[in-house]
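Notes from the 1:1 (GR / supervisor)

We went over the backlog. Supervisor wanted to see one worked example end to end before approving the batch request, so GR pasted a single chain during the call. The sequence is below; no edits were made to it. Supervisor asked that the structure be written out right there so they could see what the output format looks like.
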Amino acid sequence: MNPAQPYGMRVLSALLFAAFTSFALPSAAQDVMAASSAYRELQEICADDRGRLWGVDLCGPTIIVDPTTRGAWASESDSAGVLRNSGAGWVGVLPADAPMANTAVEWGGRRWIMLLAPLPANETDRRVLLAHEAWHRVQPQLGLAAQRGADALHLDDERARVWLRLEFRALATALRSRGRARENATREALMFRATRHAAYPNAAASEAALDRNEGLAAYTGVKLGAGDNADLYAARTLDNFDSHEAYARAFAYASGPAYALILDRMDENWRANLGASTPADLLVARLRPRFGNAGAFRRASESYNGASITAQERTRAQALAVRLASIRQAYAQGPRLELPLISMRMEFNPNQITPVPELGAFYGTLTIRDAWGELRTTEGAVISSDFQRVIAASPDQSGLQGPGWGLSLNAGYQLVPPSPNGVWTIAPVSEPADAD
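Structure output shown during the call:
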């Protein structure tokens, strides 16, 4: 899944909607062709790659959906007959239970590469996105399935953010360098990474899970989408992430391409030998950076303006403490709705996740579909640390909505009146007893 961004190509949304609602009109036919051009661009990327990067063809069934109207253009039909042949692809409106995100999805008898309209106007950004999501479609057959609940929540901590930003700056320097300078900057990045992992017991495992999921997808996108400019594209991404507000679910979009592109120049066959490692792990084995050397750490930190980063993060931490107190009050102490997570599918913005120690993670925008129905929020919800509950704050008297959120229950479920401390829950509808 790619982070939500203010992508260009705004016209595509309107074009898609026109095509979905009246695709028989001549102008709408042109709109369908505009929507299908992204698929043709993806096919060109796959033809250039010829399966060399990962040993498989990245192309497959592709669907582009407008998240506002749920109107969709697809490269082929679905098994449910929702999509109709327009002569230049299949069009229709996705049902309410169909997932929508930049990712790979199982729907309509296919495993789709799904893309949200509007797509990026910039050609390189668009190609990077196409290749990124195409990798997610083949991810299971590569033996790299994503791990549920693998957010690196420690990355919202003040110290961890300092070390991560130092790592990003070192990686950006490495990508803009060559030869020994490139290797030295990479060693410094790995030193900052190792320092962070030593300070947080679960850091290595949680970061590795995202490195092998979004990190490898992001690398694939940059490698195939940016071509000869891949190093510069990845360095600029790191620059943009230097002031990022939420690293817990998003960091690997920046570091993943960087480490893998650096490794490409040392071992072009590393992907076949990845095993349970990450590209950064393989670089540690090759470059043997010095860990635990206080002098080397201090000099490297100074070269990347670590004092300024430290001051910025201290200010951020002070503001965050106030925000976390407000979230705990609303989602752990105040009136709230708590829903069980049974077989959930979720749509979210990875740039809007705030870890809340001892509670879980706050998601700024979130849609969850589960056995009980759908919860949709634009102003936040909390998922518990164990991924067993989702919590919405301040329900109204109906229990079905609150500030920025609404709950749609399936027929087999009902609301349970709030407990004395104001906690609403749900339960399956009881079967009526047989009459004597």
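Supervisor's comment: The chain has three domains: 11-141, 153-304, 329-428.
Batch request approved.
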